[in-house]
Design brief:
heterodimer, A: alpha/beta, Nucleotidyltransferase, domain 5, DHBP synthase, 3 domains, eight-stranded mixed β-sheet, five-stranded mixed β-sheet, 21 helices, 22 strands, globular, B: mainly alpha, 53% helix
Chain lengths: 575, 79
C-alpha cells in the first residue's frame, strides 16, 4: 500500500511517500523550486517521491493532507469578523488564494498530480503529533506539539500508545507561543517564519532584562498554559505582528541589516527565558498527567534547540524523540503515518534512524554531469577521497561535501554539508567571508563521533539531528573555538558509523591528523538559498562562493582548477 | 526573438497581476463590508465574540480536546 503525505500553503511545503508503512522518499518543495520555505503545492517533491518509488500516481492508495482546510478557514473568518472594520488588507491578500487553492485541495491534487483517488484530512496538530510519535522508538509516550498556529490549535498535549494518539488538550489561537516568538523576531528586524533561529542564537549575547516587560504580554498558568495580551499584537488582523503598544514598550522595530544593539540581544534573551519557562512548565505538568517518562515533540517551536538541550535537566522526561523536520514540513510525514498506522490500523514498522530520504545520484549520473560541463575533476578511491578530504580540511580549506541522498528536514547532516576545521579560531570569520555571508553573531555547529561526544560536550544522549544545544566542556572550549558559541554551548550532531559510514570515516580521518574527532558542519547553501539538491547546484554554489573544494561521491573538484562561473554569490545572498 | 519573447511574457504577467489585483479589490470591498461587516455587527449586537481577545486570569488556559482515532469517513471531510 502506498500513502503519500502532503503539507503546503503555509510554509515549508513537503511530500512524503510510504510503501507498506516504510518511508520510500521525503523532501521539501523548496529544494526543487529553489525558493526558501516555499509554501506552494509540493508538486515537484511529490513527483520526486513517485520517481523514487518507480510508480505512477494511480498506484497511490491514499493521499493524506496535513490539516482540515475548512477549520482553518473558519479561524480566518473569525479573525475578520472579530476585528471588523480592521483587517481589510489582510482579507484582501488572503482571500483570493483561499478561494483559488486552499479550499480546493482535491482539485489541486487533480490539477498538479492528476490524482483522483481517496484523500484523507488529518488535523494539523495531530499530524505534528504523529510525525514524532509514530516514527519514534517508543510504544508509549507523552506527546507535546507547539507551533505558530494550525487550524485553531497552537499547542497540544496528549498520549501515544501503539498506533493510536489521543490529543487531550490544546491551546487555541490567538494564544500562541510560536506567534509571540515570531512577533519578537519581526520586532528585531528578522524575517518571520524564517529567522526565529537567529533570535535564539542572538539570545546568548544578552541578559534577560526585558523579562518582566515581556511577562506583561503573556499570562502563564502554573500548568504552563498561557494567554497573550492581544493589545500588544496585531497579527490577528494585520500582516504585521507587533502593535503600537508593543513598540512603545520595547522601542522601535529594528531595520533589517542595521546594527544589532544590546537591547535587541537582551530582548532575545528575555524571550528565550520565557519560552523555556513555558515549555518546562508544560512538560512537568504533562508528566504529572501521563506518568510516562518518554516524550515525543514536534511543531516549529520544537526546533528551539537551546530549550531542547535543557529538557532532561529541567523536567522528568529522560527519553525524548523530536521529529527532525519539526516544522510544517514534518506534517507531510506525520499525516502519511497517521493515515497508514492509525486510520487504516496497520502495525507500526518504521523507526526513524536517519533522515536521508531525498534525491541521490549515481556515480554515472555525476560523472556524466561533470564531463558534460567540462569540469576538471579527479576520481579517487574510497580510502583516498577520505584521506584527501581530511587533509584539505586540516589545511583550513572549506569543503562542499555532497554524498548520497539529501537530508529530510532543515539541517544538513553530512550529505549536503559544508565542512571545515573547528580548531582554527578564525574559521567562523573565514566561513562567513567565503561562503555564508551571515550575521557574525551566529555560531557554526559541530559534528562529533558519538563515542567521543562526552569528552567534548556535556551531552546526555545521542543527538543525530542537531536538535539540541549542549555546553562544550570548559577545558575543550579553547580547542574548538569555531564551534563554541559565546555562552560556551554548541548545537552538535553526534554520528555513529552505521548512520552515515563515509561521513563518520571522514571525521575519523580528520582525527588522525588533528587528534580531534570534530568538524564544523554547516548547511551546503549560501544565505537566503535552500540547501543544494543536485550536483549542478553544488557545483554552482562552490564556483560562486569561496568554497575551495567540492567532494561529490568520490569525485574531487578544486574551485581554482575550474573557470569562475558567472554566478556571483554576493549578489544573491539575502534572507 | 528568443530574448524578446520572455521579456514580453514577463511584462504581460505583470500586467495580468495588476489587473487581477484591481478586480480583486473591487470584488472584495463589498464582500468585506456586507459579508463580514454586517455579520460581525449583527452578531456582536447579541454579544457574540469570534475570538477570545479578553485577558482573563484563569487556573489553566488549556481547552479540552479529547481527540483520538475516529471513523474513516470523518477523515474524508475537510472539517
Amino acid at each position: 500500500m502506498y500513502v503519500l503525505g502532503i503539507s503546503c500553503y503555509y510554509h515549508d511545503s513537503a511530500a512524503c511517500l510510504l510503501k507498506d508503512g516504510r518511508i520510500i522518499a521525503a523532501a521539501e518543495e523548496e529544494r526543487f523550486t529553489r525558493k526558501k520555505h516555499d509554501n506552494s503545492f509540493p508538486k515537484k517533491a511529490a513527483l520526486y517521491c513517485l520517481k523514487e518509488a518507480e510508480i505512477a500516481i494511480d498506484k497511490i492508495d491514499y493521499i493524506a493532507f496535513y490539516e482540515k482546510p475548512l477549520l482553518k478557514f473558519d479561524r480566518l473568518l473569525s479573525q475578520y469578523l472579530e476585528s471588523f472594520p480592521k483587517g481589510f488588507w489582510s482579507f484582501y491578500k488572503a482571500l483570493p488564494s483561499w478561494l483559488h487553492e486552499k479550499l480546493r485541495v482535491p482539485s489541486m491534487m487533480k490539477k498538479h498530480l492528476k490524482y483522483k483517488g481517496e484523500i484523507l484530512f488529518v488535523e494539523h496538530h495531530m499530524a505534528h503529533a504523529a510525525s514524532a510519535f509514530l516514527v519514534s522508538p517508543f510504544d508509549e509516550a507523552s506527546i507535546f506539539t507547539i507551533d505558530g498556529v494550525g487550524e485553531w490549535a497552537t499547542a497540544s498535549i496528549g498520549v501515544g500508545k501503539g498506533s493510536d494518539i489521543t490529543i487531550a488538550k490544546e491551546i487555541v489561537f490567538p494564544n500562541s507561543l510560536g506567534l509571540l516568538y515570531s512577533t519578537v523576531t519581526a520586532h528585531l528586524g528578522f524575517k518571520v517564519n524564517n529567522d526565529e533561529y537567529k533570535v535564539m542564537g542572538l539570545a546568548a549575547y544578552g541578559k534577560p532584562s526585558y523579562y518582566d516587560s515581556l511577562k506583561k504580554l503573556i499570562r502563564i498558568a502554573n500548568d504552563g498554559s498561557f494567554q497573550l495580551d492581544m493589545s500588544y499584537f496585531d497579527f490577528h488582523y494585520k500582516m504585521t505582528m507587533p502593535s503600537k503598544k508593543f513598540i512603545k514598550e520595547f522601542g522601535p522595530i529594528r531595520k533589517r541589516e542595521s546594527n544589532i544593539e544590546q537591547r535587541h540581544k537582551d530582548l532575545a534573551k528575555s524571550l528565550q527565558k520565557i519560552t523555556e519557562e513555558i515549555i518546562f512548565k508544560i512538560l512537568n505538568d504533562l508528566y504529572k498527567k501521563t506518568k510516562i517518562r518518554k516524550l515525543c515533540m514536534a511543531g516549529g517551536v520544537a526546533l528551539n534547540s537551546v530549550a531542547n538541550g535543557k529538557i532532561s535537566r529541567s523536567t522528568s522526561f529522560k527519553n525524548i524523540f523530536i521529529q527532525p523536520a519539526a516544522s510544517d514540513a514534518g506534517t507531510a510525514m506525520g499525516t502519511a503515518f497517521y493515515a497508514y498506522n492509525t486510520i487504516l490500523k496497520n502495525k507500526r514498522k518504521q523507526i526513524l534512524e536517519h533522515v536521508y530520504f531525498g534525491p541521490g545520484y549515481t556515480r554515472e549520473e555525476i560523472k556524466s554531469f561533470l564531463d558534460f560541463k567540462k569540469i576538471n575533476y579527479s576520481e579517487l578511491s574510497d580510502s583516498d577521497i577520505l584521506k584527501k578530504s581530511a587533509e584539505l580540511i586540516y589545511q583550513d580549506n572549506v569543503i562542499g561535501w555532497f554524498q548520497g541522498r539529501m537530508e529530510w528536514g532543515p539541517r544538513a547532516l553530512g550529505n549536503r554539508s559544508i565542512l571545515a576545521n573547528p580548531l582554527n579560531p578564525k574559521m567562523q570569520d573565514i566561513l562567513n567571508a567565503k561562503v555564508k555571508h551571515r550575521e557574525m553573531f551566529r555560531p557554526f555547529a559541530p559534528v562529533v563521533t558519538w563515542e567521543d561526544a562526552k569528552d567534548y560536550f556535556d551531552v546526555d544522549r545521542e543527538v543525530p539531528y542537531m536538535l539540541y544545544v549542549y555546553p562544550v566542556k570548559k577545558e575543550k572550549r579553547q580547542l574548538i573555538p569555531s564551534v563554541t558559541h559565546v555562552d560556551g554551548s554548541g548545537r552538535l550532531q553526534t554520528i555513529k558509523r552505521k548512520q552515515n559510514q563515509k561521513y563518520y570515516d571522514l571525521i575519523k580521518e580528520f582525527e588522525r591528523l588533528s587528534k580531534v574527532p570534530i568538524l564544523i558542519n554547516t548547511s551546503f547553501n549560501i544565505r537566503g538559498e535552500p540547501i543544494v539538491c543536485t550536483p549542478e547546484e553544488a557545483y554552482r554554489c562552490m564556483m560562486g562562493t569561496g568554497i575551495d573544494y567540492l567532494v561529490i561521491d568520490n569525485f574531487l573538484i578544486a574551485r581554482k582548477e575550474n573557470p569562475k562561473h558567472m554566478w556571483n554569490s554576493e549578489s544573491i545572498a539575502k534572507d | 526573438m528568443r530574448e524578446v519573447f520572455p521579456k514580453i511574457k514577463k511584462l504581460l504577467m505583470k500586467l495580468s497581476e495588476f489587473i487581477t489585483s484591481i478586480v480583486n479589490f473591487i470584488l472584495l470591498i463589498p464582500i468585506f463590508i456586507i459579508g463580514i461587516g454586517l455579520t460581525s455587527l449583527f452578531l456582536k449586537l447579541f454579544g457574540k465574540h469570534f475570538l477570545d481577545l479578553k485577558s482573563k486570569t484563569k487556573n489553566s488556559y488549556w481547552v479540552d480536546k479529547n481527540l483520538s482515532t475516529q471513523k474513516l469517513e470523518k477523515y474524508y471531510r475537510m472539517f
